[in-house]
Write a structure and sequence with these properties.
Helix content: 55-70%
Shape: globular
Radius of gyration: 22 Å
Oligomer: single chain
Distance between the termini: 31 Å
Strand content: under 5%
Order of helices and strands: HHHEHHEEHHHHHHHHH
């Protein structure tokens, strides 16, 4: 462990020195590297409208939304592809058609194995699995969330604050589910998003039965997570995502210090 390996050639040594000399990225470097494209900005604008709309609500025609976003046809088509990939909108052709806010598929009499397995689980078990997936979602968000995405998450904190102020666990659980669903939509992984979204309704039942005295702590934790995503603080964001609701946001910050 303390010996020097002389078997590397000059090129390997040169590469190692180059890697060691690379400067650490500051936040300004990150923001320059991850500046959203015009298509991403247009997609974020439509996504904000989706967040304010009821599932299934008509958002407008492609041309109306393209003109509102102020982009070309090609750029808006790319934005539409991003929205469809995230599962945020559906497109309907013909008179009265256009873009619509996506809604969950209606429940039918036929269940697949995944739905059947969820149906037989306790809400607290779904909660445990959902929380175990949180770090994966947050890791994706750290790479893919634009400033507009983070702003959208921050707006969804307001209903959480209202529910915490009213000491209403059921309202808090509903608002938290919307926040989590929006977070899940930021990543590119359709399998992860599908698994996570499938757990949310059952986990919400467990959250709704939680002690109202913990709501303020949970609100602080959600706020700290959004702040960490905004600051691209990977260590803190993953710590906040990985601890469930068992520790406060302040404890997460203390661990960094």
């Amino acid at each position: 462990m303390g010996t020097t390996d002389h078997r590397t050639d000059g090129q390997d040594g040169h590469d190692a020195r180059d890697g060691a000399d690379l400067p650490a990225l500051c936040r300004a470097d990150w923001e320059r590297a991850s500046a959203p494209s015009r298509a991403e900005t247009a997609a974020d604008r439509v996504a904000d409208r989706v967040a304010r709309s009821r599932p299934g609500a008509r958002l407008g025609t492609k041309e109306e939304l393209r003109a509102e976003c102020g982009v070309s046809v090609g750029t808006f088509n790319e934005a539409l592809r991003l929205l469809l990939t995230r599962g945020l909108v559906t497109v309907r052709p013909g008179p009265g058609g256009g873009l619509f806010a996506a809604q969950p598929p209606p429940a039918g009499p036929r269940r697949d194995a995944w739905t059947e397995a969820l149906h037989g689980q306790r809400p607290d078990e779904a909660l445990r699995v959902r929380d175990a997936l949180d770090p994966l979602l947050v890791a994706d968000a750290l790479w893919h969330a634009s400033p507009a995405d983070v702003a959208g998450l921050r707006r969804l904190l307001a209903p959480l604050a209202e529910a915490a102020g009213a000491a209403d666990p059921a309202a808090f659980a509903r608002a938290d589910r919307r926040l989590r669903s929006r977070l899940a939509a930021l990543g590119p992984g359709t399998l992860l998003r599908s698994l996570y979204e499938g757990l949310l309704p059952l986990a919400e039942r467990a959250d709704a039965a939680a002690d109202s005295g913990t709501l303020r702590t949970r609100l602080d934790r959600r706020t700290a997570l959004v702040d960490a995503l905004d600051a691209r603080d990977r260590a803190l964001a993953l710590r906040l995502a990985g601890g469930g609701d068992g520790e406060s946001a302040g404890e997460g910050r203390d661990a960094d210090g």
